User: Which sequence fits this backbone?
């Protein structure tokens, strides 16, 4: 960083107390301050002022004129106009938090699946109506402009969407908070379906710039890699360590303002982009070796090129590890720099800073904080460890062994030599305390060790996160109990049960009801008398008394039908398939994975198709028409998951073109599922499927979104399904299948006792094998997961009860009045599942932070 950059950098971050801020302002000449105050006049929120702002950005920011403006240009100009208002609020929020100097929470998540930003910002600030009118006066429709926005490709599933919901709630509830993530140049991939197969296409979402981010090119942090560690004695004779890096990369900040709903609070997510310390080597360039001249630039920029680089080879593994350290190193140094401006002693660091590890991805923040405190700040180990353990909290999101990160010791030693030493020291001191309490229990020591004695040795990141955090939480009641009973059971014995808690996930009703389903949100507000339910979701219970009101039921189901028509149009546009909006819409959209059992769903569809083929015309008249809708991406290297997508599309090709069946059954796979597509799909659901093998889904949040929008659930007794069932009641949910406590015994039986396959499932598999849905050999590996693979995910075990539950769904849907009542009660009883409730629990039980409402502008 140059001297000028350092001065500018210092100037922009000083003033973390009221006194310091006033002292710095006093250095500015009074005439200059008066001029700034005179001309710092926020733009108005009336239609005329908004239109002027949009035109201003058209002619200056975009350098265009009304004569060459298309919808995309209109979107860009409008987005910059809206962003101006967010920046005003963001500046006031940051300045107010600076003066108040409260304890802040820093949320570290490798994914933030934000979705579209403009509609969310307009609704949060109550500006949708004036912007609608202003754009209309300028010759645009706001709906068309909103459709021009591209989803930010900064996540791929539930983990990232949960983080986005939590940031929305933190802002809405006035908590002082920052998020930290990576600014990926490419998202995971765009999904295209070719001949029924998933094809991955690069998702370069930044093609036309991103108006919702604020480049902070003056904020860059050096991130070291490789090299070696040397020892030396300090002036007090203490042995100290110094890491001599072999490579240094710059982390450059990009800020994304996150507005709270109906509040002035606007918080921040800081995303890091990797850049080289120098653009190219001039010596190589002058000698004509142009590739080597830009080699450092390419290597540096690779770190944030792709969300989750493929790690099924050594280079990919190292890049992913590099990605994680780059992110936590930059984030921690930013947090520490902000803290050090307060001149507080290090002992107060946990009183000012709470850091939440969202899954195991940011766990390298633990040895990094220890390195800073011990190596750079000179603290004693015990004091540094006390600070560290009081600072971190850890959210576990899985019980699947393959999702619990491990890194090989040789790779860590090569890439982060000092961090490996610190991890070994943490482990040594921890095991010494365990041995004092449980002498001679070598099995326990091996079980709880951070270092797994494999070939080669590996570091168990989840264990490191547990040991270093003062609170560890699961994300649903069942999940939290399972992790205490299984993967973290030894730590209950060693650390005590108080270390572990539950924080059931939640979703933001602002995005997933008000924005995604505005007609329903408006109807609810009309019935309840206000939009207060958007910040106090428990108020939805007031709808319960109208559940049997026929006039209200009609209004409710008319909106549902309108949403279904909107989805039929999207299906036609994306797939060419025409579906009947009067049919039952049965939806399963989520990441494609064996444990989520989309395979069982499509096997059930084949069973339904086979039965329809056996019926005569009179029998078919009594059948409930059903549209079965799938969506979701399979990891590029996940062969079985990709075969499930192929089978879904092959079955759809057969069923959708069968004239005997017509509209009685349609099968649809919607490609490239993302947040904006979900906002169309979810309000249109009649029933959604959440059918993971019991004990495998940590929580799920799509189940909450579907039910909040008046949909019923067909699901297993797993994850948050259980708590949803407890809230909405038995009549609004169709549960089936084995319970989590039965799963291991059932797997044992499947593995060793040659249990015959469910006969109805056997008949379905026979249809696949005889070529009904295309070349049978293609799907043999899928079938093998049930036969040769001994049915690890218990499809055969649950298939009978799954079919029975589907029959119950059909019968229930025939009674339109009763179904409307169920739909209303689903929404009315979802108050518990707001992300606001979850964030309040985190704030009170883990972070120990208080709201800091930003005063009204006037």
Assistant:
């Amino acid at each position: 960083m140059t001297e000028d950059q350092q001065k500018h950098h210092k100037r922009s971050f000083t003033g973390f107390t009221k006194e310091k801020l006033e002292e710095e302002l006093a250095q500015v000449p009074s005439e200059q301050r008066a001029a700034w105050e005179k001309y710092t006049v926020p733009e108005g929120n009336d239609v005329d002022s908004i239109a002027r702002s949009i035109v201003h950005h058209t002619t200056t920011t975009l350098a265009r004129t009304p004569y060459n403006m298309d919808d995309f240009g209109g979107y860009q100009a409008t987005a910059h106009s809206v962003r101006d208002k967010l920046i005003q609020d963001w500046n006031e929020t940051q300045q107010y938090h600076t003066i108040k100097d409260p304890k802040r929470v820093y949320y570290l998540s490798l994914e933030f699946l934000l979705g579209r930003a403009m509609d969310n910002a307009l609704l949060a600030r109550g500006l949708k109506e004036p912007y609608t009118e202003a754009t209309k006066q300028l010759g645009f429709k706001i709906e068309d402009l909103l459709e021009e926005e591209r989803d930010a490709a900064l996540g791929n599933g539930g983990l990232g969407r949960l983080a986005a919901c939590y940031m929305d709630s933190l802002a809405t509830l006035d908590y002082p908070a920052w998020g930290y993530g990576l600014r990926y140049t490419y998202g995971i991939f765009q999904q295209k379906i070719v001949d029924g197969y998933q094809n991955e296409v690069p998702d370069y979402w930044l093609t036309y710039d991103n108006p919702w981010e604020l480049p902070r090119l003056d904020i860059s942090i050096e991130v070291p890699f490789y090299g070696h560690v040397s020892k030396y004695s300090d002036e007090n004779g203490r042995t100290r360590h110094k890491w001599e890096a072999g490579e240094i990369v710059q982390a450059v900040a990009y800020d994304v303002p996150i507005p709270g709903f109906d509040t002035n609070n606007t918080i921040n997510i800081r995303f890091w982009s990797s850049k080289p310390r120098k653009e190219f080597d001039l010596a190589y360039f002058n000698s004509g070796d142009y590739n080597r001249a830009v080699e450092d630039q390419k290597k540096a920029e690779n770190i944030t090129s792709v969300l989750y680089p493929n790690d099924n080879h050594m280079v990919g593994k190292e890049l992913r590890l590099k990605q994680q350290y780059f992110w936590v190193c930059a984030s921690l140094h930013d947090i520490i720099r902000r803290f050090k401006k307060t001149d507080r002693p290090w002992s107060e660091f946990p009183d000012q800073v709470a850091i939440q590890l969202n899954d195991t991805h940011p766990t390298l923040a633990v040895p990094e904080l220890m390195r800073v405190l011990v190596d750079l700040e000179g603290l004693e180990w015990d004091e540094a460890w006390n600070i560290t353990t009081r600072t971190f909290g850890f959210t576990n999101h899985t019980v699947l062994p393959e999702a619990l990160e491990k890194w090989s010791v040789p790779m860590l030693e090569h890439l982060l030599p000092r961090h490996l030493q610190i991890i070994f020291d943490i482990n040594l001191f921890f095991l010494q305390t365990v041995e004092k309490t449980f002498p001679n229990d070598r099995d326990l020591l091996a079980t709880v060790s951070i270092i797994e004695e494999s070939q080669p040795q590996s570091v168990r990141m989840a264990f490191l996160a547990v040991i270093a955090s003062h609170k560890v939480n699961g994300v649903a009641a069942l999940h939290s109990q399972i992790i205490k009973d299984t993967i973290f059971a030894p730590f209950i014995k060693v650390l005590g049960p108080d270390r572990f808690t539950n924080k059931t996930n939640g979703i933001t009703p602002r995005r997933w009801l008000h924005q995604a389903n505005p007609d329903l949100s408006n109807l609810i507000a009309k019935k309840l008398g206000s939009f207060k339910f958007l910040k106090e979701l428990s108020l939805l219970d007031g709808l319960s008394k109208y559940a049997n009101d026929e006039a209200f039921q009609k209004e409710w189901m008319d909106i549902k039908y309108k949403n279904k028509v909107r989805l039929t149009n999207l299906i036609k546009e994306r797939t060419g398939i025409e579906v009947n909006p009067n049919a039952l819409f049965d939806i399963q959209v989520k990441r494609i994975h064996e444990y989520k059992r989309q395979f069982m769903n499509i096997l059930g569809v084949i069973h339904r198709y086979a039965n329809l083929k056996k019926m005569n015309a009179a029998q078919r008249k009594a059948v409930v028409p059903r549209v079965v809708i799938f969506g979701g991406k399979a990891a590029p290297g996940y062969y079985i998951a990709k075969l499930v997508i192929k089978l879904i599309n092959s079955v759809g090709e057969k069923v959708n073109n069968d004239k005997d069946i017509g509209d009685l059954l349609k099968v649809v796979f919607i490609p490239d599922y993302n947040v904006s597509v979900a906002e169309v799909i979810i309000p249109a659901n009649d029933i959604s499927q959440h059918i993971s093998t019991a004990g495998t889904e940590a929580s799920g949040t799509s189940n909450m979104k579907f039910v909040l929008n008046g949909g019923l659930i067909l699901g297993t007794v797993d994850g948050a399904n259980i708590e949803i069932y407890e809230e909405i009641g038995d009549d609004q949910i169709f549960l089936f299948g084995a319970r989590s406590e039965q799963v291991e015994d059932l797997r044992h039986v499947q593995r060793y006792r040659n249990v015959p396959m469910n006969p109805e499932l056997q008949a379905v598999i026979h249809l696949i094998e005889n070529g009904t849905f295309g070349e049978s050999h293609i799907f043999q590996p899928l079938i093998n997961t049930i036969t040769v693979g001994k049915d690890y995910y218990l499809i055969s075990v649950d298939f009978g009860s799954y079919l029975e539950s589907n029959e119950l769904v059909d019968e229930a849907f025939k009674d339109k009045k009763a179904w409307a009542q169920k739909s209303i009660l689903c929404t009315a009883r979802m108050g518990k599942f707001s992300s606001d409730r979850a964030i309040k629990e985190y704030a009170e039980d883990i972070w120990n932070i208080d709201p800091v409402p930003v005063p009204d502008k006037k």
Notes: The CA atoms of residues 674 and 680 lie 10 Å apart. The chain has 37 helices and 22 strands. The chain has a mean pLDDT of 92. The radius of gyration is 28 Å.
